[in-house]
Amino acid sequence: MERTIDAAAVIIVGQATMTKNSIGDPGVKTPSGQVFRGRAIRDQQRQILRRALAAIGHPQGSGPLACVFDLDSTLLDNRPRQARIVREFAEAAGQTRLRDCTPERIVSWDLRDTARLCGYSADEAESIYPAFKEFWRSRFFTSDYCADDAPIAGAGEFLKAVLGAGGRIIYVTGRHVGMGEGTVESFRRAGFPLPHWPLGPGQPVSAETVQLWLKPDPAGDDDLWKETCHAALAEARGIAAAFDNEPTHVNAYKRRFADAAVIHLDTDHSGRAVPVLESIPSIIDFSLET
Ligand SMILES: [Mg+2]
Q1: Is residue 231 part of a domain?
Q2: Quick check: helix, strand or coil at residue 34?
Q3: 70 C-alpha to center of ligand 1: Å?
Q4: How close is the Cα of 214 to the center of ligand 1, in Å?
Q5: Is a pLDDT exceeding 90 seen at residue 32?
Q6: Which residues are near ligand 1, the ion (C-beta closer than 5 Å)?
Q7: What distance in angstroms lies between residue 88's CA and the mean position of ligand 1's atoms?
Q8: Sequence-separated (6 or more) residues with CB below 8 Å from residue 269
Q9: Lower CB count within 10 Å: N or C terminus of the chain?
Q10: Domain containing 255: what range?
Q11: How far is the CA of 167 from the centre of ligand 1 (A)?
């Protein structure tokens, strides 16, 4: 049986999923019925991450060098950004029950889940949803707000381990180029290796060791952009490893780069009912400690 998140238990559940996931953990269920974090097995994480580092070839020899990382819900936790927007909506719209929203009350990409966890009934959550979503939409995809993102546990250390093993880091994200400054600001605070940007499709091919690929068109389709990036990556020297939380995207990496260490982040996703391919292992975060 899944654990259901409710207002009283959310903080405990939120922390527990980051530390206690293990064999047989069925994941957590949000008020709207989505289930997350039921796939990764904590005890296997260290081995999965070490295999990814071992897939990196020698810089002067043969073998693939590039490790590709998605950002949202892969290297970065967006919940501080989301919670700030919720609190600002509370002030702007007089929705006092949302005023003290913490990151732990962000449990999915459905703002109605957050409203429910802040004490709204399902009907009340539904009635404020259109204005809530619009308020969120006009802020979430901006440089100012994305600077609030926090690192996923162990991400900074793992990225440094990639460089230490002679690998290259390519951050491949659906974020548009206008979010670049805030993205790099969050990298700086998180201690991530800082990239050259904007690079990727539409820009001259680069041999920089750390690159940030941003979507040129804010209105562009994320799936299409990732496919374009995958095609560009296929022309590079080779992909050692790829990490993404979105099942559609991580599956596409595996289909195109069958020999790479393709790894799913079992954090959250857009809610589309797409199963992760059987051959792809999942991790909860980048912590090498078990
Ligand atoms: Mg993502």
Answers
A1: yes
A2: coil
A3: 6
A4: 13
A5: no
A6: 70, 72-74, 245
A7: 24
A8: 36, 73, 245, 246, 247
A9: N
A10: 39-77+150-283
A11: 22
